[in-house]
């Protein structure tokens, strides 16, 4: 055992795609983290308990939880010099562009003192990332709106501290709304891990060369940014805003069916799920809770989202192609209702997915049979041929 977590290499097979962390049955719409159904985790636990579970394989006892939480909160501040990094970006930079830069820059502040061949040091790196990603995420937001950075508050919950760093200002008290805090924590849980998705595979690929975990996280963030992946929540909200009203839905449904039209229904479809994404179900219920708490009963975007979902789930085209709402379909409405700008949606996804990325990285690093990833290709280019001298070309 190395402190908190034991990664017993014995359970890992040499197959590179084997993992004990997350199980998905796309046809049945099942998502398990270490055997626990995602809906139970989202309702019965909190994000830090899920972090402990993904890292150790077991849910924490109350004593283990307190120790783990104390460890995470002890490292929530970033090196003060990192504040200068943000100032190097244009003020109107997309926060994901900033996150790619500052997350990778953690290598310059915390990697030199760590030997990733040492399991204890790997665990330290994991804690640094779980602790600091909310701080960096909130800093990327504050920088984009020209407000001062807010230091972490270790007396608050993980989600409460993030909301405080996002919305508090030095000159007045900011009280975290417990319903919003719970919704934020649930969004963190629902995005925590999802097996070998594109960004986690990017993290594993980068980590397989022995690159340090901070640089690998930057690779994961870069991959997540794409609209087909983590950027879908931002794209989904923009799509709902473009649709604008229920009567314009048929036009966009027709575009989604048109093979010659690149338009896709953002928030629908999934490479693995050919059934309802179990995360979307919880996200939809959370969306209703948040809108009720904020007395937003007739949110126009929710009306469009609910009608779009109803039509898509009954339309033969989408039914045949098994295109269901995914995790990104409702999250954007919740975040927008909380007051978070669309440009921060994928940053919050990256914050949430950090535990998934780092758990897979630790699992891979603990496997003595782990080798550098080196996919091969099917060559379809020109056969061998010889150079014509330049003066003859
Ligand atoms: C995430 O991998 C993960 O686990 C990712 C993720 C995670 O937690 O890490 O779950 C998070 O990335 C969720 C997905 C978010 N992306 C979006 O919502 C963007 C919109 N969705 C599409 O871009 C698409 O559904 C993908 C990219 C998610 C999946 O695309 P695939 O792999 O092509 O899906 P498919 O093979 O099941 O598609 C079947 C058919 C195809 O048409 P045909 O070639 O059979 O004619 O359905 C079509 C697709 O073109 N299709 C869509 C569609 N999604 C797929 N048509 C219209 N609208 C869509 N949204």
From TrEMBL:
<dbReference type="InterPro" id="IPR036969">
    <property type="entry name" value="Citrate_synthase_sf"/>
</dbReference>
<dbReference type="InterPro" id="IPR010953">
    <property type="entry name" value="Citrate_synthase_typ-I"/>
</dbReference>
<protein>
    <recommendedName>
        <fullName>Citrate synthase</fullName>
    </recommendedName>
</protein>
<comment type="pathway">
    <text>Carbohydrate metabolism; tricarboxylic acid cycle; isocitrate from oxaloacetate: step 1/2.</text>
</comment>
<dbReference type="InterPro" id="IPR024176">
    <property type="entry name" value="Citrate_synthase_bac-typ"/>
</dbReference>
<dbReference type="InterPro" id="IPR019810">
    <property type="entry name" value="Citrate_synthase_AS"/>
</dbReference>
<dbReference type="InterPro" id="IPR016142">
    <property type="entry name" value="Citrate_synth-like_lrg_a-sub"/>
</dbReference>
<dbReference type="Pfam" id="PF00285">
    <property type="entry name" value="Citrate_synt"/>
</dbReference>
<keyword id="KW-0808">Transferase</keyword>
<dbReference type="GO" id="GO:0036440">
    <property type="term" value="F:citrate synthase activity"/>
</dbReference>
<comment type="similarity">
    <text>Belongs to the citrate synthase family.</text>
</comment>
<dbReference type="InterPro" id="IPR016143">
    <property type="entry name" value="Citrate_synth-like_sm_a-sub"/>
</dbReference>
<keyword id="KW-0816">Tricarboxylic acid cycle</keyword>
<keyword id="KW-0012">Acyltransferase</keyword>
<dbReference type="InterPro" id="IPR002020">
    <property type="entry name" value="Citrate_synthase"/>
</dbReference>
């Amino acid at each position: 055992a190395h402190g908190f977590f034991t990664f017993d290499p014995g359970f890992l097979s040499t197959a590179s795609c084997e993992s004990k962390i997350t199980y998905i049955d796309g046809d049945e719409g099942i998502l398990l983290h270490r055997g626990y159904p995602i809906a139970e985790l989202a309702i019965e636990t909190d994000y830090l308990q899920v972090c402990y579970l993904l890292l150790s394989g077991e849910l924490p006892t109350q004593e283990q939880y307190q120790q783990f939480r104390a460890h995470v909160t002890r490292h929530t501040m970033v090196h003060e010099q990192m504040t200068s990094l943000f100032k190097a970006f244009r003020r109107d930079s997309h926060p994901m562009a900033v996150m790619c830069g500052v997350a990778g820059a953690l290598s310059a502040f915390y990697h030199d003192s760590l030997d990733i061949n040492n399991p204890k040091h790997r665990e330290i790196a994991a804690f640094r990332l779980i602790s600091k990603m909310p701080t960096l995420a909130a800093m990327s937001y504050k920088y984009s709106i020209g407000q001062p950075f807010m230091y972490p508050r270790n007396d608050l919950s993980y989600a409460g501290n993030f909301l405080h760093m996002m919305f508090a200002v030095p000159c007045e008290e900011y009280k975290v709304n417990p319903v919003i805090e719970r919704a934020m924590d649930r969004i963190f849980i629902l995005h925590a891990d999802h097996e070998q998705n594109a960004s986690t595979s990017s993290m594993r690929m980068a980590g397989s060369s022995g690159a340090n975990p901070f640089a690998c996280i930057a690779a994961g963030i870069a991959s997540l940014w794409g609209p087909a992946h983590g950027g879908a929540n931002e794209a989904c909200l923009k799509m709902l805003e473009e649709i604008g009203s229920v009567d314009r839905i048929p036009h966009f449904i027709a575009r989604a069916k048109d093979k010659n039209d690149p338009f896709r229904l953002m928030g629908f479809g999934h490479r693995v799920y050919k059934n309802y994404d179990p995360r979307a179900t919880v996200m939809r219920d959370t969306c209703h809770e948040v809108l009720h708490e904020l007395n937003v009963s007739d949110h126009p975007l929710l009306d469009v989202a609910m009608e779009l979902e109803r039509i898509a789930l009954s339309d033969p085209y989408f039914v045949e192609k098994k295109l269901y709402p995914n995790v990104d379909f409702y999250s954007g409405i919740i975040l927008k209702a909380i007051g978070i700008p669309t440009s921060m949606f994928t940053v919050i996804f990256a914050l949430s997915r950090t535990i998934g990325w780092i758990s897979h990285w630790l699992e891979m690093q603990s496997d003595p049979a782990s080798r550098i990833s080196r996919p091969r290709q099917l060559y379809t280019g020109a056969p061998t041929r010889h150079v014509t001298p330049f003066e003859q070309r």
